[in-house]
């Protein structure tokens, strides 16, 4: 009786140590995890414990130590060896890391056979609980194929065992494999199905579609997914060292992180810096990206200029050389010239600016624009002239051109109140109140005059109204859908009450929103029989996802 009790206590203690080891693996403390698993193995010789001890050693950068741990299970003369699919797949990964790819492939094939034989045995025995945990082995087997860079085999294994997968990691691996073999639509579909697991998955879905359309050049996607903290650490390192920037741009997930900035807001400073880094440090792929950005209509002028700057810095483009570029809705040959920035007052240029202002005040907008553009054509970068030119273009409705000029000015004077005010007004005009507010909040008005402060108050109120209106229309769309669904369900039960109109409810919401801002209800004459349709003023609110996914590299074996 005492012996049985002692054995039971040992097993229980081993389970506690093994659980502790798994937690340490998840936090990346591989050496402490090794210690916990080694102590557990002394108490209980169980395959999951030995496998996880080997995994901890492998993750700690000790592949030979990991093989020593697995050796008793891999001995072909040991008929009672406890090897399972996890054992063979992990051994394959370790040998692959040591450059023994032929042996790694044989172990992978053995892992596949062991898994399928095990599944048949478990189905016969009816052990449903064991069947579920056994299915988790599909992840490490697919990872062993990924380590061999056999992308097609990774996807074939995914399809072969599609009914067995219980982890999001299977879809992640399959999505990366599809991306690497050119099946971009399937890749996008797989990433879409797990978008909630990691904030980059939605970006990868968008990336796959853009590669499919030829907008972004293809590259090989890695199978090691970095957690958000690791990516932030890399971004910090890259900011301090050119060598680190060059190295990190070769990492596929660092590339995706930079592309995320571009996809999110292609006219932001971060987006411009990201584009420059990708093109400048991206070697052959970076050159292809830069050229495609110039020729594709969907990229903003500021991104095109960032790509052109990087190509010029690499010596691929030369100053004054005609470059094919899609800009302002047309394919053009554009000559890129470097203009010296004139930050000191210039009497001659100030006279031209004064004439342009006089023309503007007399309603001669086109003449004023032409006068200021002549300064640009002469290769002179004079901020006062550019500021007025940008505003004239803005009032004329040429918003992209105005934005391009203002973004160049922002690079030179990022804290200039007048520039930030005009950028906020431009964002509002472009239907982006959230970005307008971001510029507004950057303005330091302590050293500005009373007239400027009054204009600032007026702009702030306009932004608040646009935000509320945007939010209300966002909510009304949701309410409309909910209301329609509710009435669809009720219509067979009873007729709709005469006073239950959605329009009345929406009108109250809009009135409430205006009253919050202290604004009078807006009245508008409507011709008889004319209908009205609300136009949304901004993009749908973005809600950043939470990172619930880890690296996927430290999956332990379930005991």
TrEMBL record:
Secretion signal span: none
Keywords of this entry: Repeat, TPR repeat
Keyword Membrane set for record: no
PROSITE patterns per the UniProt record, alphabetical: TPR
One Pfam family hit: TPR_16
Ranges for region Disordered: 520-559
Annotated protein name in UniProt: Tetratricopeptide repeat-containing protein
Species per Swiss-Prot/TrEMBL record: Desulfoscipio geothermicus DSM 3669
Compositionally skewed regions (Basic and acidic residues) per UniProt: 544-559
TPR repeat segments: 14-47
Transmembrane segments: none
């Amino acid at each position: 009786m005492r012996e049985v009790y002692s054995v039971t206590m040992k097993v229980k203690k081993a389970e506690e140590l093994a659980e502790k080891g798994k937690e340490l693996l998840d936090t990346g403390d591989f050496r402490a995890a090794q210690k916990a698993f080694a102590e557990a193995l002394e108490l209980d010789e169980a395959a999951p414990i030995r496998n996880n001890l080997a995994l901890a050693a492998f993750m700690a950068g000790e592949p030979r130590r990991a093989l020593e741990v697995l050796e008793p299970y891999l001995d072909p003369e040991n008929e009672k060896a406890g090897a399972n699919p996890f054992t063979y797949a992990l051994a394959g990964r370790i040998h692959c890391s040591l450059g023994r790819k032929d042996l790694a492939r044989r172990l992978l094939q053995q892992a596949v056979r062991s898994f399928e034989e095990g599944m048949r045995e478990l189905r016969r025995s009816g052990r449903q609980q064991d069947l579920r945990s056994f299915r988790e082995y599909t992840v490490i087997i697919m990872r062993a194929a990924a380590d061999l860079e056999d992308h097609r085999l990774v996807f074939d294994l995914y399809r072969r065992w599609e009914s067995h997968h219980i982890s999001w990691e299977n879809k992640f691996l399959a999505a990366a494999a599809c991306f690497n073999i050119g099946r971009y639509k399937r890749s996008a579909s797989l990433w879409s199905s797990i978008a909630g697991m990691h904030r980059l998955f939605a970006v990868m879905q968008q990336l796959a579609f853009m590669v499919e359309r030829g907008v972004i050049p293809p590259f090989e996607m890695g199978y090691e997914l970095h957690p958000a903290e690791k990516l932030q650490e890399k971004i910090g390192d890259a900011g301090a060292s050119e060598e680190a920037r060059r190295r990190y741009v070769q990492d596929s997930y660092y590339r995706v992180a930079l592309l995320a900035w571009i996809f999110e807001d292609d006219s932001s400073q971060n987006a411009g810096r990201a584009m420059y880094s990708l093109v400048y440090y991206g070697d052959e792929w970076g050159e292809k990206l830069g050229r495609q950005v110039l020729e594709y209509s969907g990229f903003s002028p500021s991104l095109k200029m960032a790509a052109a700057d990087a190509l010029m810095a690499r010596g691929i483009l030369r100053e004054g050389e005609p470059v094919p570029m899609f800009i302002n809705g047309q394919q053009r040959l554009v000559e890129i010239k470097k203009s010296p920035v004139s930050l000191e007052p210039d009497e001659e240029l100030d006279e031209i600016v004064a004439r342009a202002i006089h023309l503007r005040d007399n309603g001669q907008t086109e003449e004023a624009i032409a006068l200021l553009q002549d300064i640009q054509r002469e290769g002179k970068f004079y901020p006062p002239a550019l500021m007025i030119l940008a505003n004239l273009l803005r009032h004329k409705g040429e918003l992209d051109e105005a934005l391009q000029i203002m973004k160049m000015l922002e690079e030179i004077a990022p804290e200039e109140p007048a520039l930030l005010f005009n950028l906020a007004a431009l964002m509002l005009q472009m239907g982006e109140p959230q970005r307008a507010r971001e510029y507004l909040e950057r303005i330091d008005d302590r050293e500005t005059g009373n007239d400027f402060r009054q204009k600032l108050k007026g702009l702030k109120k306009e932004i608040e109204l646009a935000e509320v209106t945007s939010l209300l229309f966002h909510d009304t769309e949701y309410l409309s859908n909910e209301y329609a669904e509710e009435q669809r369900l009720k219509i067979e039960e009873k007729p709709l009450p005469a006073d239950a109109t959605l329009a009345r409810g929406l009108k109250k919401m809009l009135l409430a929103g205006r009253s919050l801002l202290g604004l009078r209800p807006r009245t508008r004459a409507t011709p008889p029989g004319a209908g009205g349709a609300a136009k949304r003023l901004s993009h749908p609110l973005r809600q950043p996802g939470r990172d619930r996914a880890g690296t996927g590299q430290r999956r332990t074996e379930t005991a």
